[in-house]
Automatic annotation (TrEMBL):
InterPro entries, alphabetized: BBE, FAD-bd_PCMH, FAD-bd_PCMH-like_sf, FAD-bd_PCMH_sub1, FAD-bd_PCMH_sub2, Oxid_FAD_bind_N
Signal peptide boundaries: 1-23
Gene3D superfamilies: 3.30.465.10, 3.40.462.20, Uridine Diphospho-n-acetylenolpyruvylglucosamine Reductase, domain 2
Family of the protein in this entry: Belongs to the oxygen-dependent FAD-linked oxidoreductase family.
PANTHER family referenced in this protein's UniProt entry, alphabetically: OS08G0158400 PROTEIN
This protein's UniProt keywords: Disulfide bond, FAD, Flavoprotein, Glycoprotein, Signal
Protein's recorded name: FAD-binding PCMH-type domain-containing protein
CC cofactor: FAD
């Protein structure tokens, strides 16, 4: 959903059970059915978008992050429906089932393979875009907030900060993520080492199941409530809203970004980071952003590693922690900036320092291009020789990016079976690989995708094995997919399901 639409969707399998209606009647049939089944009427001109109206393309592209999924050759929806209330979503599910139309649902559009707004097969489908369902009700006394699925994590952070400077929520670093789909995959962020994932901090939810029923935690039961918190977006229903458990944050936090190039000893420093990152004070999150930059020598390129951090406390205690645990980075007071937690959200998301927090209400993605991404989890430090081979391969690509996110802390204390997200104790860090380009040309895309696949193959001996695991919110269709939408067996699906969920896939699959 939104940020991670599952490639093996039980909900969609139900919706595909009937024979498809003729393409030329889908729009009329769907609209008539919605009108009959919705308790509340909706304005056609602002809720129902078909390919023959000018607004269709802008609505389709509005939250689509990966332009690779919008090229002309990719199948487009028969229509986009933007519900204004819960009964509209109910009606969309009921009508999709009655008419045999495939349903795609998006909250933020950050799913890496575009599965919330495209189809891998030539099958008519409808997109239900939840962007107008974005109310946020923060209750500081109860330490909770009800948040509709179409709200972005940035909006959630901002609305919490309006009510309290000492409350927060441990979800994503990218502020334009749709909260609905984001949490269905787990939702990691810069406070995960202190409080766990966003999905670990959900108290209740409202969903529409495959039969069009609206269910909360009590009525859906604990098995389904377990599954939706990390089991993959749209796999078990459409998320309408989450009840989030707010967490305490200090009035003052500290951030820093320290870059190190190969010429500045990046290899040895990164090897040391791997040994300590999961063991640092739980209030300290240091991720490493790795890219290729211009070297000191004119015309040369080098690898740059940037240590980007949030510390839930003041600079004095941070410097003490770093001097004791990671002196190799050489962190100095001048590298650090104290600020409020909401200001740190903007900092970690990459906004300029003078940006007012209200920008989070715009919900717009800072990252929109053609890209391909993959992920890995690492359980043993990668040796320096392995890193040197990695640098060689990064320097072959035009715009490579890697992000290494540390685990440990609370992530090691929560059992693997607590929710479907299984990457817990023993995981040192997660790697995100990404390559991007600016041209829709197929040959250009193929070149970059071939490069990231070769890089992924190179890393095989340094990452988790049996299975080689992956993060479901970084959906990667190279790992496997439901080829025709309905005829994939559980055994076939386990080939990729185990990579995302490990042993938890057995519980998700039955």
């Amino acid at each position: 959903m939104g940020d991670s639409c599952s490639a093996f969707l039980p909900l969609l399998l139900l919706l595909l059970s009937a024979s498809l209606v003729a393409s030329d009647s889908i729009q009329d049939s769907f609209y008539k059915c919605l009108s009959v089944n919705s308790q509340i009427s909706f304005p056609l001109s602002t809720s129902f978008f078909t390919p023959n109206i000018s607004a269709f393309t802008s609505i389709l592209q509005s939250s689509a992050q990966n332009l690779r999924c919008l090229v002309p050759s990719v199948p487009k929806p028969e229509l986009i429906f933007t519900p204004l209330n819960e009964s509209h979503v109910q009606a969309a599910v009921i009508c999709s089932k009655q008419l045999g139309i495939q349903l795609r649902v998006r909250s933020g559009g950050h799913d890496y393979e575009g599965l919330s707004y495209m189809s891998q097969v030539e099958t008519p489908f409808v997109v239900v875009d939840l962007s107008k369902l974005r109310s946020i009700d923060v209750d500081i006394e109860d330490n909770s907030s009800w948040v509709q699925a179409g709200a972005t994590v940035g909006e959630v952070y901002y609305r919490i900060s309006e009510k309290s400077k000492t409350h927060g929520f441990p979800a994503g670093l990218c502020t334009s993520l749709g909260i609905g789909g984001h949490i269905t995959g787990g939702a990691y962020g810069s406070m995960m080492r202190r409080y766990g994932l966003g999905a670990d901090n959900v108290l209740d939810a409202r969903i529409v199941d495959a039969n069009g029923r609206i269910l909360d935690r009590e009525s859906m039961g604990e098995d389904l409530f377990w599954a939706i918190r990390g089991g993959g977006g749209a796999s078990f229903g459409i998320i309408l809203s989450w009840k989030l458990k707010l967490v305490p944050v200090p009035a003052t936090v500290t951030v820093f970004t320290v870059p190190k190039t190969l010429e500045q000893g990046a290899t040895k420093i990164l090897y040391k980071w791997q040994q300590v990152a999961d063991k640092l004070d739980e209030d300290l999150f240091i991720r490493v952003i790795i890219n290729v930059a211009s070297a000191a020598a004119k015309g040369e390129r080098t690898v740059q590693t940037s240590y980007n951090a949030l510390f839930l406390g003041g600079v004095d205690r941070l410097l003490k922690v770093m001097s004791e645990s990671f002196p190799e980075l050489g962190l100095q007071r001048k590298d650090c900036t104290e600020m409020s937690w909401i200001e740190s959200v903007l900092y970690i998301a990459g906004y300029p320092s003078s940006t007012p927090p209200a920008v989070l209400l715009q919900g717009k993605s800072l990252f929109k291009n053609f890209f391909k991404a993959k992920s890995d989890f690492v359980r043993e430090p990668i040796p320096e020789t392995g890193l040197e081979g990695l640098w060689k391969r990064l320097l072959e690509e035009e715009s490579p990016l890697m992000i290494w996110n540390p685990y440990g802390g609370m992530m090691s204390k929560i059992p693997e079976s607590e929710i479907p997200f299984p990457h817990r104790n023993g995981t040192l860090f997660k790697i995100q690989y990404l390559t991007s380009w600016q041209d829709a040309d197929k040959d250009i895309a193929a070149k970059h995708i071939d490069w990231i696949r070769r890089l992924y193959n190179y890393m095989a001996s340094y990452v988790s094995l049996f299975p080689r695991t992956a993060y479901v919110n970084y959906r990667d269709l190279d790992l496997g997919m439901n080829k025709d939408g309905r005829n994939t067996s559980f055994i076939q699906a386990s080939g990729w399901g185990n990579k995302y969920f490990k042993n938890n896939f057995n519980r998700l699959g039955f």
